[in-house]
TrEMBL record:
Keyword Metal-binding: no
Organism of derivation: Paraglomus brasilianum
Keywords: Membrane, Transmembrane, Transmembrane helix
Membrane spanning stretches: 41-61, 81-101, 107-126, 138-156, 220-236, 248-267
Source taxonomy: Eukaryota, Fungi, Fungi incertae sedis, Mucoromycota, Glomeromycotina
UniProt entry tagged with the keyword Transmembrane: yes
Protein name, as recorded: 956_t:CDS:1
Amino acid sequence: LLIVFPKPSGKTDDPEPSRLTGYPTWHGKIDGNDQQKVDSFATFDSIVLLVGAILTFRWSFVEKLPKNNDYKIIHSKTIPFRFISLYCLATFVAVVASIAFDVGKLWGVFGALHNLMEVAILLLIGQNGKIKGVSFSLLWGAYYLIINTVCLFTNFPIDAVFFKVQGLAVDFALVIEFTRVFINTKKNLNEQAELQLPLNTDENRDGDNDAFAVRHPRQWLLMISAAVVHLLGNIFNTMAPNDGKTNLVFQLSYAITFLLYLLYVYFDTHTISVHGPKRFYLPETPGAKTAVLAI
């Protein structure tokens, strides 16, 4: 961001107007821009996102969740299934809004929904799986309010930079937290094999002989991969925001990211050697550390 904003002369490019509203956007003139390709990629993204939201929502209700009072353990059909469905839906709204309004202040109200769902997933992991607590709702709502307040009351390029910075911060956090969940879950399952579902040795034996089976929690690697692809696409676009090719790569990264999320849900429900909901062990995150990272 320091490389991109501001220019060496201390000036930034004048923002281009939105095609529909004529309002200033959050980008200057894009070199080599092919609007037809941009719209085509965005339409493709929106189709992937809408289908992904429908399928993940449907698959999340296949089986009943076991009751568990240990909030340090979450089951695969709590998060990420239903949250991924909402994540896809929120991103679908953001992509459609970008087609209609282009990326700017007006779009930011819709684009923040995408970040809001990412924050919801981070909060769920950071609060040991508690989604009904008052703090979850307060933090969630406060995040959305702060993003929109800052963006609405500041001028270009501060509003654009702020939105980009918070988006990158959340994307980095997702990669880190997903990796921590995988490492912690694998460690706990190795140390406490008796806690792993299913509780039937015959099912384990059948899963071991299944050529298409994936051992839990290896399917979670798809979650990490999706977060990494999304982060790389965002970084690539940040370093060259006015380059038409990087914008197309960024659009493509959205489709790849959410296809990976969809594949995760499919593998977890159809090809895992352990049938039924899977346990994920959340890493310990002290409150003080969470507060520092959030700031």
